[in-house]
Amino acid sequence: MDTEIMTYTAEEADIGIRLDKFLADKLNDCSRSYIQRLIEQGHVSAAGKQQKANYKLRQGDTVYVEIPEPTALDVSAEDIPLHIIYEDADILIINKPKGMVVHPAAGHDKGTLVNAVMYHCKDNLSSINGVLRPGIVHRIDKDTSGVLVVCKNDRAHQKIAEQLKVHSITRRYRAIVHGILKEDTGKVHATIGRHPTERKKMAVNIENGRDAITHYRVLERLKGFTYIECTLETGRTHQIRVHMASIGHPILGDTVYGPKKCPVKGLEGQTLHAMCLGFIHPTTGKYVEFEAELPEYFRQLLQTLGSEM
Length: 309
Description:
Elements: E1 4-9, H1 19-26, H2 32-40, E2 44-46, E3 49-50, E4 62-67, E5 84-87, E6 91-96, H3 113-121, E7 145-151, H4 154-165, E8 170-178, E9 185-189, E10 192-194, E11 202-204, E12 213-221, E13 225-232, H5 239-246, E14 272-280, E15 287-291, H6 296-304
Parallel strand pairs: 7-14
Antiparallel strand pairs: 1-4, 2-3, 2-4, 5-6, 6-7, 8-13, 8-14, 9-12, 10-11, 12-13, 14-15
């Protein structure tokens, strides 16, 4: 893989934003420290020359970013506490906290879920997705919390991957979205593909995009927001975030697909929680379903917004 070059243009809303903060919003799978290293090493230019991380953007500034070819990562086990919902010889069901990256990548080679499960499971993880993603058959975003299955052997991995492929797995999420949804239930059916100019972003109705369907129902209407449950019929990257934004109701806290400035002070990342995961167990052949309780910040936020649930 050769060096990848991305180009961004600072808009009116970006005036005065630090260069490293601007890029952290664009490259949302890369850590702030990794982006700062790119800047320090001369891989970033803005307004025609290399700048420091604290450079304040001006409208119309063109920002060039070089992402160097990745070096091989030495993935090591780390003693990181895990919230384990269920475990047997085949699978590990985890309630992933908000802010934890699932697997190592550029700028995130430590502190990931993979580092944690390697310590917990020792050598008992599937190898199908390679050394960077042992046991990982599916993922949820860094700032999405909730239930996730890790496979301890290749047979379990294959069985669950087959269910993911035919969309037979139950996946229900909870989210708070901007605005008041008028209908109690609805469906978003729009293809999703990679954004034409922003590498880390997805978009709807992209040429050669993949079919995607999200069902939603209103749980409670709040002060300027709506608390909803979303059920995935398909499982595309950023699907709920992209689909809800496409109908004018982006997820609260999602500065990638929603407002760049979050209206709730101190909230970082989207208010999206993977509540329920159900599938046919790879050994017993019986349907099993697991739930991850809402995180404390989510419950408190609901109360702040006037929830009576």
